[in-house]
């Protein structure tokens, strides 16, 4: 074979590659473009329009209304603002409780199950992971039964003499209930008199309702297994040497975990917190299946409100606007968290002990 | 190799520390610690498993029994009324069939399209590849719930609302899956396919008969994820369909939960429906159990 033939053949391969590159990615580009990019752009237009669901949103009868839909939600003073405020309040408490609890629990489970010598390791992992594979609809149905007024949870509570609440029908806020136990029934005027997004500050501080608490427990139950697997993987990738060195220096198990293992898990911790946060702001399936926002709108979430506003009330512009505000919230919290957990320069004082070791430490 | 070193080191040093401590007191302390660990694990495992046992048990109870003995794992009187009702007197078989149809097509589609795109992004050199990849990452960061209204708008505009096409086609590929396949193809050596290409095989030939068979582990991951994802999907079907003939299990069982088809609470019926819809994903999980547990290891390792 002579050289010129070779080069021409080579270039034809490269030429073919460009064509097949586009050909291979074409289905993905078309599908994602058609059902993800274009829809988002369409919804963005709808959120600035007064489309009522009839006909095409691009027809001449639909007009541009500027930021009307957004301002109705963020300061209209009407029911729309109040519902949106309520939904944000509910979901904020949900996030505030679900994300830390599921992260701690999954890390705890991972540490327990990651022991070198542990009988039935596979069994325990399977047990903890199994709830994660089931669908949110099936779990919600199960939860509605377990937490019904005559359900298993209340039966269990009755064994220890506690009269359980009627979980999914109880709109009272948990924090308000705790304060009520101490005789505080109404908040100070400064809190009850002033409002934010149509909800008084006292109502913002109500805590999750009893009904929402049951959903919070459900979220922890179903997600801890997935995150446990992430932590197990990270724990197995840690080098034993650092822990070993700490052990030699006389650190006990508790110190080793907090000072040595946990700092090394930082990247995984970041992943788990981010995924948890993104997931916890998108509560939809459970509400759709279980409570439809009730009791007393205390399980209303922005995601469900967006659906309800558009599909049930036919206020499509407002529904789309809620979705975009939710999008902004999720992006904001993700970035905020990234900033919070970012690797910072360690101060000189904290660095000193490490600077002295290299001579002895590195072989 | 590294693991053997690690275990050796690990077992060595506690034994050294053992020597420095009293010989008598340690075994009891060790046993106490170990029993505490097991006790804790067993209690946790019971908490995680009990709900599912109660679910299955309750589905065989009568309505009255379910209300009065919510925790009993053995029904007072065995009753298969819930299952008979579901299979003989409701739309449940239709729901199951629809879920199965969608899951099969979506899984096949994702296996093919994700690996095709992942391979191109990992291996083929062409102009615009980086742009496509950047867009893919951007698309991945859009939260799914935000897409409810947008998806409906496009499906409606295309005139495919309330059809199988609307249920299946939008799910045929997913950005995360493409990303997984791309990462996998980058991790395997290019020498084999280069050899085949020098021998004159076309790009698709190389992909189909050489690269794809090597990608089995990643493909299994895609199969697991898309099977589970499409079987458990709810929101997409809510916005894509409305007619009863196109109702999937998730949508149907959700409507059961909110009280259609039933007077009274009817927990055995609802729990039976939820239990049956869990079976396929549970079977899938137990078949690929080893893989699922290892997949995440591999996915995070990098």
Automatic annotation (TrEMBL), chain A:
Keyword Magnesium attributed: no
Q: Which GO terms describe its biological process?
A: transmembrane transport
Q: Membrane topology per the record? A: Multi-pass membrane protein
Keywords annotated in UniProt: Cell membrane, Membrane, Transmembrane, Transmembrane helix, Transport
Instruction: Note the InterPro entries from the entry.
Output: ABC_transporter_permease, MetI-like, MetI-like_sf
**UniProt cross-references to CDD domains, sorted A to Z:** TM_PBP2 (cd06261)
Tell me which Pfam families the record gives. BPD_transp_1
Stretches assigned to the ABC transmembrane type-1 domain: 88-337
Q: Which domain of life is it from?
A: Bacteria
Q: Where in the cell is it found?
A: Cell membrane
Primary location class: membrane
What cellular-component terms does GO give this entry?
Answer: plasma membrane
Q: Gene3D superfamilies annotated for this entry?
A: MetI-like
For this protein, the parts annotated as crossing the membrane are: 21-48, 92-114, 126-146, 210-235, 265-284, 320-341
Protein family membership = Belongs to the binding-protein-dependent transport system permease family.
* The protein's name in its UniProt record: Sugar ABC transporter permease
UniProtKB/TrEMBL annotation, chain B:
**Annotated PROSITE patterns:** ABC_TM1
Q: Subcellular localization, per the record? A: Cell membrane
Membrane-spanning regions, if any? 36-54, 95-119, 131-152, 164-185, 206-227, 271-288
The alphabetized UniProt keywords are: Cell membrane, Membrane, Transmembrane, Transmembrane helix, Transport
Q: Does the keyword Transmembrane apply?
A: yes
Q: Any idea where the ABC transmembrane type-1 domain is?
A: 96-288
- Main location per UniProt? membrane
InterPro entries in UniProt: MetI-like (IPR000515), MetI-like_sf (IPR035906)
Q: Into which family does the record put it?
A: Belongs to the binding-protein-dependent transport system permease family.
Q: What is this protein called?
A: Carbohydrate ABC transporter permease
Q: Which species is listed as the source?
A: Cryobacterium lactosi
């Amino acid at each position: 074979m002579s050289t010129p033939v070779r080069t021409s053949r080579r270039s034809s391969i490269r030429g073919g590659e460009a064509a097949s590159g586009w050909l291979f990615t074409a289905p993905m580009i078309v599908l994602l473009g058609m059902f993800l990019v274009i829809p988002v752009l369409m919804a963005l237009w709808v959120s600035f329009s007064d489309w009522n669901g009839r006909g095409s949103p691009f027809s001449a009868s639909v007009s541009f209304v500027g930021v009307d839909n957004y301002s109705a939600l963020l300061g209209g003073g009407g029911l729309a603002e109040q519902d949106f405020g309520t939904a944000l309040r509910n979901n904020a408490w949900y996030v505030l409780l679900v994300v830390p609890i599921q992260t701690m629990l999954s890390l705890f489970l991972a540490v327990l199950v990651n022991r070198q010598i542990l009988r039935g390791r596979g069994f325990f992992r399977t047990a903890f992971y199994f709830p994660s594979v089931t669908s949110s609809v099936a779990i919600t149905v199960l939860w509605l039964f377990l937490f019904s007024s005559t359900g298993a949870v209340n039966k269990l509570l009755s064994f220890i003499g506690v009269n359980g609440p009627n979980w999914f029908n109880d709109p009272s806020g948990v924090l308000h209930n705790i304060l009520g136990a101490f005789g505080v029934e109404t908040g100070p005027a400064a809190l009850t008199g002033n409002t934010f997004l149509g909800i008084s500050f006292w109502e913002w501080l109500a805590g999750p309702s009893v009904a929402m608490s049951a959903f919070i427990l459900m979220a922890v139950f179903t997600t801890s297994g997935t995150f446990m697997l992430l932590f197990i993987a990270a724990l197995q990738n840690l080098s034993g040497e650092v822990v070993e060195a700490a052990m030699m220096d006389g650190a006990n198990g508790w110190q080793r975990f907090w000072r040595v293992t946990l700092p090394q898990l930082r990247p995984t911790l970041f992943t788990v917190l981010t995924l948890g946060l993104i997931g916890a702001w998108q509560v939809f399936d459970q509400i759709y299946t279980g409570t439809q926002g009730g009791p007393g709108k205390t399980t209303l979430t922005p995601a469900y409100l967006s659906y309800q506003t558009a599909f049930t009330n036919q206020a499509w512009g407002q529904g789309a606007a809620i979705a975009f505000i939710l999008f902004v919230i999720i992006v904001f919290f993700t970035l905020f968290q990234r900033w919070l957990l970012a690797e910072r320069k360690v101060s000189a004082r904290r660095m000193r002990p490490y600077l002295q070791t290299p001579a002895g430490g590195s072989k | 190799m590294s693991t053997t070193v690690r275990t050796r080191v690990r077992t060595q040093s506690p034994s050294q520390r053992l020597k420095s401590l009293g010989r008598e007191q340690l075994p009891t302390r060790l046993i106490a610690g170990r029993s505490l660990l097991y006790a804790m694990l067993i209690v946790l495992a019971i908490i995680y498993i009990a709900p599912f046992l109660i679910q299955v048990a309750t589905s065989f109870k009568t309505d009255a029994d379910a209300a009065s003995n919510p925790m009993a794992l053995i029904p007072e009187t065995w009753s298969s009324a819930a299952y008979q009702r579901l299979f003989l007197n409701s739309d449940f078989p239709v729901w199951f069939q629809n879920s199965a149809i969608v899951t099969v097509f979506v899984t096949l589609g994702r296996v093919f399209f994700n690996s095709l795109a992942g391979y191109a992004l990992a291996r083929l050199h062409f102009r615009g590849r980086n742009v496509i990849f950047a867009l893919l990452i951007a698309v991945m960061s859009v939260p799914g719930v935000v897409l409810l209204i947008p998806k409906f708008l496009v499906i409606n505009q295309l005139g495919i609302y309330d059809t199988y096409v609307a249920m299946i086609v939008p799910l045929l590929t997913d950005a995360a899956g493409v990303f997984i396949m791309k990462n996998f193809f980058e991790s395997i050596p290019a020498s084999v396919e280069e050899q085949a290409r020098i021998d004159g095989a076309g790009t698709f030939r190389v992909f189909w008969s050489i690269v794809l068979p090597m990608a089995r582990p990643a493909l299994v991951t895609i199969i697991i994820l898309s099977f589970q994802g499409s079987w458990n999907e709810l929101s997409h079907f809510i916005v894509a369909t409305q007619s009863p003939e196109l109702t999937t299990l998730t949508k149907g069982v959700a409507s059961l939960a909110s009280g259609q088809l039933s007077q009274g609470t009817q927990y055995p019926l609802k729990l039976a429906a939820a239990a049956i819809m869990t079976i396929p994903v549970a079977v899938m999980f137990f078949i690929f159990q080893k893989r699922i547990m290892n997949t995440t290891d591999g996915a995070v390792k990098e």
